[in-house]
Amino acid sequence: MKRAKVSVIGAGQVGGIVAFQIAQKELADIVLVDIVEGMPQGKALDISQSAGIEHFDARVSGTNNYADIKESDIVVITAGVARKPGMTREDLLKINSEIVKKASEAVKAYAPNAFVISVTNPLDIMTQLVYKTTGFKKNKVLGMAGVLDSARFALFIAEELGVSVKDIFPMLLGSHGDTMVPLPRYTTVSGIPLTELLPADKISSIAERARNGGAEIVALLKTGSAYFAPGSSAVAMVESILKDQKRILPCSVYLDGEYGIKGVFIGVPVKLGKDGVEQIIEMKLTAEETAALKRSSEAVAKGVKELGI
Ligand SMILES: NC(=O)c1ccc[n+]([C@@H]2O[C@H](COP(=O)([O-])OP(=O)(O)OC[C@H]3O[C@@H](n4cnc5c(N)ncnc54)[C@H](O)[C@@H]3O)[C@@H](O)[C@H]2O)c1
Fold this sequence. Notes:
This protein is of the alpha/beta class. It has helices at 13-24, 39-49, 51-54, 89-110, 123-134, 146-161, 200-211, 213-221, 228-242, 287-307; strands spanning 5-9, 29-33, 60-63, 74-77, 115-118, 141-143, 168-169, 172-173, 181-182, 188-189, 192-193, 247-256, 262-273, 276-280. The protein has a six-stranded parallel sheet, sandwiched between helices. The protein has a three-stranded antiparallel sheet with strand order 7-10-11, covered by helices on one side. Strands 12-13-14 form a three-stranded antiparallel sheet. Helix 1 runs parallel beside helix 2 (39-49), helix 4 packs parallel to helix 5 and helix 6 (146-161) crosses helix 7 (200-211). The longest helix has 22 residues, at 89-110. It starts with a strand and ends with a helix. The site of nicotinamide-adenine-dinucleotide has 33 residues, from helix 1 and helix 4.
């Protein structure tokens, strides 16, 4: 039987981790694509050389030619630049939208049957750009943010309670970034609502730290942004699709009236399986949570409008 194929466009920090983890987990053969000559080839060779130590069977190759993504089952887009000091949000939006548009056109041309997982920031807007440019069905295009934001939320809860992070089941909605909407009512510690274990002010400060989780790492690293946990998060989505796990993961998906929102990509819990986004799970929200989600979707819609998507 043929092994699955995953292409990763953008062989930078996040792309490298995605490729390494997919190989280690033997999920698929991997093609790393980048515009920098030699770099994706070098990373692919380096990852391949760890196969004898890690004992995985997966072919990893690097290329500067988009045509090599042909027949991919999944394409992960991590190509782009991170925001640097002095760069406005609009500058970032403009630069990354040109890169993501190019990558999406390549996916449409060479891998028309692939699922696309977008990682490039600003996440929800870039995912909408992928959807528009490829013209793919809405179950095939999704963005990674919620898995990472939840993982950050879970870690800080586990540390506060002094319990295993494995027993934290976090839930949050909304856009990646400032307008993320954590849902403590739906977050449990082995089934026990978080609201029964921590006071509201403590939960708020933990949620705030998760919301600023990316910025906290940028401030520490000074050059570049987070990539280990972002890479793991994208791979969890790849795995759920390739193994038809039907995990419920928060992903940025196209809403068509769900949660009273239409025509915008935003983070909500979805069932991820062999058909991609198989179901959008609608939870009952309070008026306050609904308003926060609406604000979040309006921020994405504003960016989408600025780009003229
Ligand atoms: N969604 C999330 O939660 C999340 C988390 C972390 C990072 N990110 C985003 O992911 C993106 C990548 O982050 P990184 O740390 O890997 O950055 P990076 O700079 O290490 O890697 C980006 C790579 O994209 C390549 N690239 C640029 N234009 C290209 C093109 N047209 N075709 C192919 N490749 C191209 C660059 O050469 C570079 O190697 C950034 O936009 C970052 O903000 C998102």
